Amino acid sequence: MNHTTTDLAYLAGIIDGEGSVSIHSTLARRKFQVYVAQVIVVNSNVPLIDWLHSNFGGMVHVKPSSKTGFTGKRQCYTWTVTGYTLDKLLPLVLPYMVVKKQQVDAVIEFRGTFGNALRGRDLPDAVKQLRESLCLKVKKLNSAPTEPSTPLPLVALAH
Fold first, then answer.
1. Is residue 75 part of a domain?
2. Which among 16, 32, 76, 159 has the fewest CB atoms less than 10 Å away?
3. 90 is a domain residue
4. In the predicted model, what is the mean pLDDT of residues 94-107?
């Protein structure tokens, strides 16, 4: 991936403002935990979604209007990045992240646990525990209040 710093900074801003950085777990075959890390951007602007997909890969899906909760509103699209594409992309945008920097750090560490050939129930307990702790960390960061702990000063704008 060859991207300009402007493209990477813009992408970081899109992820910070419009995106979601997450780790989800499910029980595979009712026997062992499977974890998936992803970055998702949902937006109604088709040129933005096209730009994300053409420049950074990933997948694009049309979000059914019934699931948006806003009938009669614009159609939304979902851009999703997982796996190997995520491994290459997140270290590039990390320096430009502001709001979701800790989540990106945790997902990078999480994805680093996928370098070995072992999967599922064959994983060492230490790797399983690390994945679970990083999953919980990202969930906690994503549910943390976004309001400042101290009131922000009001600044009058000059006309």
1. yes
2. 159
3. yes
4. 97
